[in-house]
Amino acid sequence: MKLIEHNPLATDEELAAFLTASVSTIRLDRAVLGVPELRERMRSMAQKATSRLRSLKQSEVVGDLLELEPNKWALSVLETRREMAFRETDMVWDHYIYAQASSIAIAVVEADLVIVDSMRGEYKGHARVGDSLVARAKVGVHKDEKYIVSVRTKVGEKEIFVGRFIAAVVSHSGPA
Fold first, then answer.
1. Which domain of life does the protein's organism represent (predicted)?
2. Largest CA-CA distance found in the chain, in angstroms, rounded
3. According to the CATH classification, is domain 46-175 in 3.40.50.800?
4. What does the pLDDT read at residue 46?
5. How far apart are CA 123 and CA 88, in angstroms?
6. Whose C-alpha in 57, 77, 79, 126 is 20 to 30 A from the C-alpha of 159?
7. What angle do CA 53, 57, 61 make, to 5 degrees?
8. Domain(s) of CATH 3.10.129.10: residues in the chain
């Protein structure tokens, strides 16, 4: 149970490998303990997270927002598809990686309207079609209506993007 609490995105196969058990044993134990399968855990997490979402509509978030603690941290997952690939390769276009990071940087700030003022980032690896991009945002310091948000995106254990965003709360009359 603690393993799933620590990593709610763990698949049955990953749990089996970690615990040196068979996948069928993991599934049986999960059923006995009342722990839902990965897809259901993700759906439940997404519903809870989006209920706290204020700065974006759910449809504006790139990927699935799974966890959100406003003005503190957030977690999203983007399942990559064929149409996200560059030309005739299986490599995902970088703008999808950036879009996920940017949207989670905005989503984590609790305000009605938030934009990215600036960003410094580095691509550290590539994503391929079929990969799950897991982005984690963490809010650092903020002054007035500007928040520094760090976003790290991983595929498995490999970090592929690191960005530092300055997210600005915008009043209806213009930037703060």
1. Bacteria
2. 59
3. no
4. 63
5. 21
6. 57
7. 85
8. 46-175
